[in-house]
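User: I'm new to structure prediction. If I give you an amino acid sequence, what do you actually give back? Let's try with this one:
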Amino acid sequence: MFAIGEASRRSGVSVETIRYYEREGITAKPGRAANGRRLYSDAEISELAFIKRCRDLGFSLPDVRALRSLSGNAEGACSEVSTLGKRHLSDVRSKISDLRKIEAALEDLVASCESGEAKCAMLENLLADKD
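Assistant: Good question. You get back a string of structure tokens that encode the predicted 3D arrangement of the chain. For your 131 residues, that looks like this:
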């Protein structure tokens, strides 16, 4: 059994995030020592690390809950996990597309600033009333 600081170090999840996950019911509340301090088992630390890997990939907390639930049911879970993964991949690709559009717009605006004009085209564009 490990204190929260050690659970944080082993899982890679910050202490505050561990407490947040417990408050929100994302993880079960751990056992407590006689002095009231949280104690984490290897299994609970593995669960935190699993959640961290999911979050690092950008999965939402509801998706993390679903994936965690599915991880306990190896049979038949692959199809549901695949569906979640495909949906998330589609969302990521959409965000990448949006970011590329933002990148192109910013490149144009920055290039107009570098031209040395007296008026700043970037500020004019940002201040313009566009619907």
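You can read the tokens as a compact description of the fold. Here is one thing that stands out. The first helix runs from residue 4 to 11.
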